[in-house]
Amino acid sequence: MRVWVGVFLIILSAVAFVAAAKQIEMPAFINGSAQDRPSPYPRIGRDRIHLFPDRIVIDLVDAHWATFTDSNSMDPLFDEGHFAIQVTPKTEQDIHVGDIISYSVAGTDGIIVHRVVAIGDDGEWYAIVRGDNNSLPDPGKVRFGQIKRVMAAIIY
Predict the structure, then answer these.
(1) Domain count of the fold of the chain
(2) Which of 12, 16, 101, 154 is the most core-located residue (most Cβ within 10 A)?
(3) CA distances from 112 to 39, 61, 67, 102 (A)
């Protein structure tokens, strides 16, 4: 038993050394912490979710069904074949850092679904968005008028 514990500690030390040398992110169980990132704003209270033996009922006004294409930009959160429930934001105050929004880009027919990473005001409200699997934010500021919906739930 002592031999296996020793082998485990040697392997764990080697992993930590290699990770430090390569400056890669180490799993939380090794370095004791994980990066804190903003989560989506809670849009559905527990009192609005009703579980029954044969169904689930969610009391949600202005709900819309969403599907996704295989772009990989939001991997591993969701991908093609997953579904979501979205709601239409009424004002800028309905959008928070961490939320996942659907927005349009002028001159295109498509809708982009990415996470809000910053909110600002340059005389007009805007959001900076980025796909979870993308290294850089999307180009340009997303204005409130471009936002179609905000994610309320993901269904796998």
Answers:
(1) 2
(2) 101
(3) 19, 23, 11, 5
Residue 67 lies in a domain: yes
CA distance 127 to 34: 25
Q: Which domain holds residue 142?
A: 46-155
40 is a domain residue: no
Radius of gyration of the chain from its Cα atoms, rounded to whole angstroms = 21
Count of Cβ atoms closer than 10 Å to residue 116 Cβ: 23
Edge-to-edge order in the sheet of strand 63-67: 63-67, 83-87, 147-155, 100-104, 111-121, 125-130, 142-143
Same domain membership, residue 27 and residue 53: no
Fill in the amino acid letter for 65: W
One-letter amino acid of 71: S
Strand intervals (E) in 37-155 = 49-52, 55-58, 63-67, 83-87, 100-104, 111-121, 125-130, 142-143, 147-155
pLDDT at 5 over 70: no
Question: In whole angstroms, what is the distance from residue 15 CA to residue 59 CA?
Answer: 48
**Rounded distance between C-alpha atoms, residue 84 and residue 98, angstroms:** 16
| Token code pair at residue 2 | 């002592």
